[in-house]
């Protein structure tokens, strides 16, 4: 599978950012990744890499905006009201309990 040089550079930059966060014993999150990429962008001397880093930051931000509290299912909204601790930690159930019932078909 052929990948463009830009895609390879994007993967390399994200990998560098994640490894540097881990090296600093930081928590991996969208926010920490964006912050680390912003630092990399500010200190990068190559114009092409700066542009790619800016594109990556914009893409990550756009991905985050697609997941909002308005799009939560009714089960997730009810779960959030019941447990403030989970809501504060941004932990949400991935599957509605009603989806697990019904079919026993696995594939």
TrEMBL record:
Domain of life: Bacteria
UniProt lineage: Bacteria, Pseudomonadati, Pseudomonadota, Gammaproteobacteria, Enterobacterales
UniProt-recorded name of the protein: Uncharacterized protein
Organism of derivation: Buttiauxella warmboldiae
